[in-house]
């Protein structure tokens, strides 16, 4: 009979590679009163049948650093524990069959340069030298990544678990969690089939069972299982233990050496979902699903095309193992908003092995420090609203999600499945007027009017529609449906005092004024970027981005003790913007930051003199049941409908920042050039003040600048490498076509050196081609 302690400071549920990594890193940080529970045996759920690929280069710098750490840890762990992880730094080759894929590889190479990672574009012939078993007649080029590696997932898990045990962690196998004891916002105990354990913190690392475990604690974990296929072949000539990993994304396949043969797997364009999160079997360890050669054939046909010898090579083993996927292809990490002491590390979308080391460390640091120590916004569980856990939504979306692993990562790509979750009251009317919609946090939002949403690395056909809308806003008046804005009401005794602590700017302003303010963490870096309107002595109206509702409300409660009311679904917001906006509305052009109640077309609205486009205008907050009336009045008066693509271009011409692209937990107002938007000049205490003062005294390591491409031909999308005098100097965070400027504009963080960041010969790398840029600390449009 398995014995359990009566209590533990931290209980981790799930003994796969991620749970073992969290335990290891908690112990390394000095938190050793940790109990790791596994319902079967270590690595027996999803981990054991993972392919074990470790590719450090990711789409973002924060994601890249996370996997870089994983690779370093896996290479060094055996020396500490005496158990091999099977890690080999063999390198990786990614091949391109099409011109579009070659552009992607060129952009990836530029990302690597921005992150100081070794990476080389090579010819097809050189690719074959690196990976002899393949044919290259149909290839246009390839990418060589010396930092890629492979690992044995089961051995890695055992080594991490041993390292945790050596530091005092208790590991118990064959213990199933059946529920949780709770007290208000906290979990007080973990109930198991071997007895109850009191605890201070719970960490849900239960893999594809994480959604069911989360439900037991009242926590939303949006993930769904899909079947993931690969085979292990008989011996293949030309393979050896140090053969690099090879990926052929145009054929949806990957290859790695295993005992003289090849692991051949992939991510088919249309995945095969498995059971719903609440319908997973138990027990289910070290088990596979029934072979499905018909479904796998699309991958095998492409594998044979790349490695012709496979047509006459036998198969040793067929693997069909379920893995969990999330709606946006990013994993889930962090403290659950529903419970103060429940953390989640799950939904790794087939990158759990590569991510486990860095993710385990990041989550352990979050638990110990009380907040993240780096930018985790892209994987933060709080990016999802509760509706995202709906099983039918998840089943539809993850079919697409798995298929996107090797699809071309087009700029501004919109999901095709599980749409129309949330709609503005204007949706049907805007659709009639030619709106093409994108989605954010479930909201359908107009991107542009007229044309079709087509993807390209160059200038899309719909750019003409966006340009028309930009011109309308700069010269006349445009109306933007911004209903998706998050909107919160804060009121009651103590509201001002609490907001004064959370807001870095001074919000003790007269009633009828609006303050633009950051919310900072203890490190003095960004947690949010909002406007706060004072509507009464102890009442406030907060407006934030569409994507951050859950995150914002959680931050207000944890950091400020504020129980805000979410009014997002109750009100629409119509942005009426342009030099003719005052005339259209019949109002004087009031000073920025004024807010008042008034009427438009007989409807009471809140008019806030605020702009995200740099033109005179108002954000009109309207009850959703009257929004259509107000919009019709504006349209009849001459306002032109405009979408979020135009909004992006307009805000970049004015140098306006966005969370989390420019304003992230890795950057402070000092680096962002927004110290003026804080109360640092006065003596008001606020969260993060001490760290911000220290950052200002030390000076920035990076500086945010506006840039304009001298040549109007290239198209920038964000993520491009910036070079100074031919050497990597930074990276574009956001970019778009600027119709008023006549070329692409953007914002970029540049490294601060001895000379001013705006000096030197500055260029931007666009898929291997370099173009001169003008860089300034001022906005390119006055």
Question: What does it look like?
Answer:
- It comes from Nocardioides anomalus.
- Residues 703-778 form the Aminomethyltransferase C-terminal domain.
- Residues 426-680 form the GCVT N-terminal domain.
- This is FAD-dependent oxidoreductase.
- Strands 4, 5, 6, 12, 13, 14, 15, 16 and 17 form a nine-stranded mixed β-sheet that branches.
- With 782 residues, this protein is an alpha+beta fold.
- Among the domains are: 7-84 and 151-224 and 328-383, 3-Layer(bba) Sandwich (FAD/NAD(P)-binding domain), CATH 3.50.50; 92-146 and 229-234 and 245-322, D-Amino Acid Oxidase, Chain A, domain 2, CATH 3.30.9; 701-782, Aminomethyltransferase beta-barrel domains (Elongation Factor Tu (Ef-tu), domain 3, Beta Barrel).
- It has 18 helices and 38 strands.
- Helix 2 packs across helix 5 (153-166) and helix 11 (463-475) packs across helix 16 (644-653).
